[in-house]
């Protein structure tokens, strides 16, 4: 940690409301569970990030960033080689800083502001003006528009449902139905369905579909062909995969791929 309490890769800029560090990450790089004294906007200018907060995780392409409130423990993983930006915002200097995690849109102007504020040579006036514009551009993804995809998924806590979730995460193409999972876990179909709905907000079928989209987003970031990704996440045809992906994200897989490169 630096003297400010931020990670050592963050520049020490006394008086700054926003501190930005450029963090190149290799595929599979993991920052284990940690927290910061400042709010963080976790964003990758290139690549795909997976960020976990407790039982909830998000997968984000470059058009989306995750607002992580100060003091909230989280794990950050680069599922592909990524150009991450650690954007740290001091709580007492940020207007209307949210106290819940939120997906924000990153349009070209916000992306340019983030990279501009990474310049440690800015004079105080330049930095204050850029910070003011950046604060104004922090908008929920639904209001920001533009390219970019974020997939949120909550893991169940009950060990029986968790066993199903972990197995599907290891192999999203696993074709077993709820009855088969019930025999494996010793829980009936109704019990598993109730557990998934109560603990994740989704029924087992929708949870599996969301997991497949998340896995697909990570695979698309690696440059695999759409047909290969479709097969790996359990769809019999590319057209069925494209339709499911678009229903979940609002964009086609090629469009999502374009936002990860």
Largest sheet: 5 strands, antiparallel
The neighbouring-strand order within the major sheet is 1-8-3-6-9
Helix content: 25-40%
How does the overall form come out from the CA principal axes? elongated
Order of helices and strands: EEEEEEEEEHHHEHHHHHHH
Beta strand %: 15-25%
Structural class per helix/strand content? alpha+beta
Mean pLDDT: 90
How would you classify the quaternary structure? single chain
Strand count: 10
* Spans of at least 5 consecutive residues with low confidence: none
Radius of gyration: 20 Å
Q: Could you tell me how far the N terminus lies from the C terminus, measured between alpha carbons in angstroms?
A: 31 Å
Number of helices: 10
Describe it for me?
Helix 1 (108-117) packs antiparallel against helix 2 (124-137) and helix 5 (178-185) packs across helix 6. The strands form two sheets. A five-stranded antiparallel β-sheet has the order 1-8-3-6-9. A five-stranded antiparallel β-sheet has the order 2-7-4-5-10, covered by helices on one side. The protein has helices at 108-117, 124-137, 141-144, 159-170, 178-185, 189-200, 204-221, 226-232, 238-249, 253-258, and strands spanning 18-25, 30-34, 39-46, 49-53, 56-60, 64-68, 74-78, 82-89, 102-105, 150-154. The longest helix has 18 residues, at 204-221. By secondary structure, it is of the alpha+beta class.
């Amino acid at each position: 940690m630096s003297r400010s309490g931020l990670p050592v890769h963050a520049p020490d800029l006394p008086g700054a409301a926003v501190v930005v560090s450029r963090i190149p990450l290799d595929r599979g790089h993991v920052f284990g569970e940690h927290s910061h004294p400042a709010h963080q906007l976790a964003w990758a200018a290139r690549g795909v990030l997976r960020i976990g907060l407790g039982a909830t995780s998000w997968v984000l392409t470059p058009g989306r960033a995750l607002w992580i409130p100060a003091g909230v423990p989280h794990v950050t993983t680069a599922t592909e080689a990524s150009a991450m930006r650690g954007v740290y915002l001091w709580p007492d200097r940020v207007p209307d800083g949210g106290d819940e995690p939120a997906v924000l849109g990153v349009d070209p102007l916000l992306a340019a502001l983030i990279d501009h504020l990474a310049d440690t040579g800015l004079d105080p006036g330049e930095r204050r003006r850029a910070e003011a514009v950046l604060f104004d551009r922090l908008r929920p993804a639904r209001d920001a528009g533009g390219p970019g995809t974020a997939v949120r998924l909550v893991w169940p806590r009950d060990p029986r449902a968790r066993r199903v979730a972990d197995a599907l995460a290891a192999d999203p193409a696993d074709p077993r139905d709820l009855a088969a999972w019930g025999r494996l876990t010793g829980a009936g179909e109704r019990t598993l369905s109730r557990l998934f709905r109560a603990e994740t907000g989704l029924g087992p079928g929708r949870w599996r579909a969301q997991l497949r989209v998340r896995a697909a987003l990570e695979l698309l970031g690696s440059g695999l062909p759409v047909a290969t990704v479709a097969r790996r996440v359990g769809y019999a045809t590319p057209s069925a995969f494209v339709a499911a992906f678009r229903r979940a994200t609002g964009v086609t897989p090629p469009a999502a791929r374009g936002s990860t490169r």
